[in-house]
Design brief:
176 residues
Length: 176
Amino acid sequence: MSDADVSIDQIIGQLDLAKVSAELGEDPQEVRKAAYAAVPMLLGGMQANAQDPQKQVGLLGALDEHAQRDPASVDTSEGQKIATHLVGDPDQAVRTLGATGGTGAGADLVKKLLPYLAPIVLGVIAKKVGGKNAGALGTVLSSVLAGAASGTGAGTSRSTGGSVLTKIIEALFRKK
């Protein structure tokens, strides 16, 4: 993996699993499983925003703002706003996740995790992209999502059921 690569494992590794599990009253293993469903959803939303010229401007601004910010300093209400900007209606996003079989994670828990994970995803990608660089953004997102879909390399070291992730991303972000 090159310095430009980001893995889903790296992103989830920044989640304070014990703290979030305790706050949500959930089993840490279930939270981890839900995180592996939520992160590709957030990355797919980021990619969809990056491909829309109007939304790309806002996304690059948010990346620039979060490049030097500690994701842990973002509260969940701000995290919810970030998640909504990335995936749209969180209810619709998790319904789509459930409709495609998901990754075995509960849809309600995935939805609860979005505000915790959105700032982390934004912060990690911001640091890799290095500010307002649309070309680098596309490269990084494509690499992470390709790795997640295949269950290898840049995306994640664990098998995540690539066809399921591909279906989720396509269903959530297909152009209407």
